[in-house]
Amino acid sequence: MSNVVVCRGFNEPDVDRSSIDHLLPFLNTHHIQNANYGDFKFFGVRFFNDNIASVIAGMSADNSVGIGHSNGCAVLVRAAFLSENIMRLILINPALDNDTVFPDSLERVDVFHNQYDFVVTVSRLLLFHGWGDMGNVGYQGLDKRVHNHETSRLFSAVGHSGVLVDHAHELADYIQDELFI
Questions:
Q1: Residue 151 to residue 74: CA distance in whole angstroms
Q2: Pairing of strands 86-92, 108-113
Q3: What is the 3 state secondary structure string of the chain?
Q4: What is the rounded distance in angstroms from the CA atom of residue 67 to the CA atom of residue 80?
Q5: What gap in Å lies between CA 109 and CA 59, rounded to an integer?
Q6: Which domains does the chain have, with CATH numbers?
Q7: CA distances to 28, 91, 116, 174 from 156, in Å
Q8: Which of the residues 66, 72, 148, 167 has the least number of beta carbons within 10 Å of its own beta carbon?
Q9: How confident is the model at residue 100 (pLDDT cuts 50, 70, 90)?
Q10: 180 φ/ψ sector (left φ>0, alpha ψ -120 to 50, else beta)
């Protein structure tokens, strides 16, 4: 059983039932901490992601695995810089630059992406912001701890939230069976 910190994206119309929440019933053998940061719109996350990351860093149990979607991935990466309790990250369609630098304290990072995620492709155009197109192209840096998983090939899942909304059970099985959390 793992300690899992879950962090959703920001543009969720129902903060009590976000895209990443589709995974939770299938991860029920783990200790889940849901970092639901409320109804923040674009400007809220742009200015408060660091604050949210600080709260997540403080609430993370030892040897935690962070599972994030979209902006939640950016928050979890920042939280991992602030807390060595977060040992691994599983990033689902991350709104991150494709060559993001990860903290040395992480043992492993898994990136789930697909070429049909156009939401993050547009987000990379924002100036002075850490968002990028990793959810579309995967991780393109040199860090050997980072592993890409193409969701259109693995699950026939496309788009920014498709693997969570339409293939949550298969994704959860893959995370638990192949990534050993």
A1: 19
A2: parallel
A3: CCEEEEECCCCCCCCCCCHHHHHHHHHCCCEEEECCCCCCCHHHHHHHHHHHHHHHHHHCCCCEEEEEECHHHHHHHHHHHHCCCEEEEEEECCCCCCCCCCCCCCCEEEEEECCCCHHHHHHCCCCCCCCCCHHHHCCCCCCCCEEEEEHHHHHCCCCCCHHHHHHHHHHHHHHHHHCCC
A4: 12
A5: 20
A6: 3-178 (3.40.50.1820)
A7: 24, 18, 11, 14
A8: 148
A9: very high
A10: left
Residue 133 has which token pair?
Answer: 């197109």
What are 112's two structure tokens? 């789930």
- 98 is written with which tokens? 């494709």
